[in-house]
Amino acid sequence: MLALSPRPVDEPTMLMLQASPVAVACGFPSPAQDYYDGPIDLTEMLVDDQEATFIVRASGHSMTEAGISDGDELLVDRSKRPRDGDVVVAVLDGQLTIKRLQISADRVLLKSESSEHPDIVVPELSELVIWGVATFSIHHLRRP
Amino acid sequence: MLAHVDVNSAYVSFERVFNPALEAVPTVVLSNNDGMVVAASREAKALGLDLGRPWFELRPHAQRLGVTALSSNYELYGDMSRRFHAILSRFTPELEVYSIDEAFLRVSPRIARDPDAMTALGRDIKDTLRRLIGVPVCVGIAETRTLAKLANRSAKKIAAFDGVCVWPATRPEWRQQLMSRLPVSEVWGIASRLERRLVAMGISSIADLAAADPVRIRKAFNVVVMRTALELRGVPSIVAEEDRTGHKEQLIVSRSFSEKITTRDGMRQALSIYAQQAATRLVRHRQVAKLLTAFAGTSHYAEQRSFPSVLVKLPAPTADPVELTRAAHRLLPLIEDGGRYARAGLMLTDLRPAEVSQPLDLFRFAHEESRIAELIDKVQRKEGRDLLGLGYGGMRPGPSWQMKREMLTPRATTHWDELATVRA
After folding, report:
1. pLDDT (tens digit, 9 = 90+) per residue, B31-41?
2. What residue ranges in chain A does DSSP mark as E strands?
3. How far is the C-alpha of B91 from the C-alpha of B80, rounded, in Å?
4. Phi/psi at B109 (nearest 5 deg)?
5. Which residue of B has its CA nearest to A96?
6. Å from A30 to nearest chain B CA?
7. Among B52, B6, B60, which Cα is nearest to B31's?
8. Which A residues 36-55 touch B at CB under 8 Å?
9. What pTM was computed for the model?
């Protein structure tokens, strides 16, 4: 049937509610309007240094107990100085590898966060290349 | 005082950030269609793999030499270049982007007074770029652009500088010796063609040019060479080539095809896509164009050589893809079915900022009103280049003329599906 629809049928579904920045033509303007500064910007919240932050994807299961599963994306900030306890991307045998950095008085360890994967002892701290510090994991809770 | 910063073997260095296994491996990056070497790592240069060498010549030897060859990953280089320049701008209020991997920075007067402070600045720039985006750079600091380039060259070639050369901090005798030793062709802007004529005048070293009478140089050559000579004496004479907003005088979209185009329809599609790319770039730079040149050409070695081109005056300055496509298609009557075209392109000239040239309403294009270029740009950025296009440019490529990039690495910083993988 070709009944006239009062509204466009193809209106995209918006998951985010946006207040109108334009004054309403009649009646009282919404009091919320004065307080609206735009939606939450995830980049602004999660990224300190945009030029130094890279997104990478984890492959493997050695970090599951740190909340990083196979296929999760990670924000890696190269501007952060690596500290004991950080989850870092290190260069091991020419490959980017994600592990937890453990620095103690007598040794440096790249620790796996899974009982099935061994830790890696770093013999010389000077030979360890840290590519960046992981700041957030985008952990997929609902698989497609 | 100016600092000149550039990325060492930029394309190779950008690739190595995401593939550390290439560190210390002789690596080359190839041009469009994997044609020839456009970037070579230090190790590759040491093996005699020079820029400009055709890939088909090198391919048989590459494996034996242990050379890794990669296709140009323009998306990756573009994004890394953006990061490079953005980080440099943290060090100066005045950044002059010179190319994808080079920039000049104005050094503040306070720092410029103190050679030690300048050295510290150079080190800081070098270390920061290495840390934040993982690329090695060299820094040259001097009174003029020409000397800053020369200082950068020294920083690269002389190990003792460790990548940072502050010209005024070096000994005058050393500078004199270096300039007497280096041929004049090592100076920024002196081409080999010019060199021959300079040598004929008795000017063979950089020191000779610096000592030459500027008036005599201007008379024998032109004001550009005279400015170079003055700059070598520390007199700033060359101004920024391009303003800092990224606005350019002209915009060229052109490629050689991986396989020849032999039909008018094939050419129509190529021109449509180029028109759209040109429109997108204009919109991004907030510019409009008044003139469009469309051109095509067979190989110079073809039996039937043909290089058709048309210059189209646009009805009003525009960035509208519909108008640009229409104008580009004016080339088609000159294209012969059966001709073997190896290349085509568009050049837009007479560019101006979009906001100041508001044409009279009479000349506004209907499509411009609907902001179709911005829409296409938005959708393409979000969904990829192949999803949406205008007219013939929107057809999915099966066409053979799409760029051949057989050894392309992932576009790790611009494409969600191609992120770098970290082993967990």
Report:
1. 877 888 999 99
2. 53-59, 73-77, 87-92, 95-103, 108-111, 120-122, 129-138
3. 18
4. -55, -35
5. B422
6. 30
7. B52
8. 49-52, 54-55
9. 0.70
